[in-house]
Amino acid sequence: MADAKKMERSYTIPLRREFLKVPRYKRAKKATAAIKQFLTKHMKSDKIKVGTSINEKVWENGMRNPPSKVRVQVVKDEEGTVTAELFGAKKTEVKKVNKKAPVKKKEAQKPAPAKEKKTEDKPVEAAPAKSE
């Protein structure tokens, strides 16, 4: 099931009691905050990562109608980081990006500025007067 250094649990998190405390237009946001608060309390860690599947489930019916409860699968690793995914959803691996030294851009040699050719201004001759 899990290694000795990893702790894996599944929870059904009640959300209704929390999101009814706020106005309708803030319900989904409060529900996600309630999930993080619940996991902080029960997994005894402040490093919480909520998966995209949970977020999509909460926002599925819009911000005014989050689900009343959510079932999640939670894993706490040896570093104390807690990751939560929707129960039954595929686990997504977080890709770690290696930070490389910034590459210096080679300065491209700019071509010599083209000289503008000035056209000679021809004096404007007065139009011949019409003779009647």
- What is the total tally of β strands? 4
Strand composition percent: 15-25%
The H/E string reads EHHEHEE
Q: Supply the CATH architecture of one domain.
A: Roll
Instruction: Quote the CATH topology of one domain.
Output: Ribosomal Protein L31e, Chain: W
Broad shape = elongated
Largest beta sheet, briefly?
4 strands, mixed
- Count, helices: 3
Low-confidence stretches: none
Q: What distance lies between the first and last C-alpha atoms, to the nearest angstrom?
A: 112 Å
| CATH class category label of one domain | Alpha Beta
Strand arrangement across the biggest beta sheet: 1-3-4-2
As a percent range, the share of helical residues equals: 10-25%
Polypeptide structure, described:
With 132 residues, this protein is an alpha+beta fold. The protein has a domain at 7-86: Ribosomal Protein L31e, Chain: W. The chain contains three helices and four strands; from the N terminus they run βααβαββ. The protein has helices spanning 16-19, 27-43, 52-59, and strands at 7-14, 48-50, 69-76, 82-86. The chain has a four-stranded mixed sheet. The radius of gyration is 33 Å and the shape is elongated.
Short description:
With 132 residues, this protein is an alpha+beta fold. The chain is 22% helix and 18% strand. The chain has a domain at 7-86: Ribosomal Protein L31e, Chain: W.
Short key terms for the protein model shown above:
alpha+beta, 132 residues, 4 strands, 22% helix, Ribosomal Protein L31e, Chain: W, single chain, four-stranded mixed sheet
